[in-house]
Specification:
The structure is a single chain. With 86 residues, the protein is mostly beta strands. It has one domain. The protein is built from no helices and five strands. The chain has a five-stranded antiparallel sheet, with no helix packed on it. It is globular and about 40 Å long.
Length: 86
């Protein structure tokens, strides 16, 4: 779910998903510690044109030794949004 304030570019988000490896050869080798688990995160962000900064402040399965409530960040650039032929 994404709640966007169009005038400012600010938004709140919440995501839930499940990691599965069905059909990817999971029986022949270990698929990883997140397979079969439900993952979720929530946070805020800001987008301006093709640039976006995302700040999840809660994750359901943090890295080992991290707290679920912690500010993390990610920067993304949507190059397809600025390319004139796409």
């Amino acid at each position: 779910m994404d709640l966007t304030q169009a005038r400012t570019g600010a938004f709140l988000f919440g995501d839930v998903g499940r990691v599965e490896a069905s059909g990817l050869g999971e029986s022949s080798r270990p698929a990883g510690p997140l397979v079969g688990r439900t993952l979720a995160d929530a946070g805020a962000g800001y987008g301006y044109g093709p640039a976006k900064v995302i700040l999840p402040f809660w994750v359901s399965r943090p890295e080992h030794g991290e707290a679920p409530w912690r500010v993390r960040w990610r920067f993304s650039l949507d190059l397809a949004g600025i390319h004139p032929w796409w």
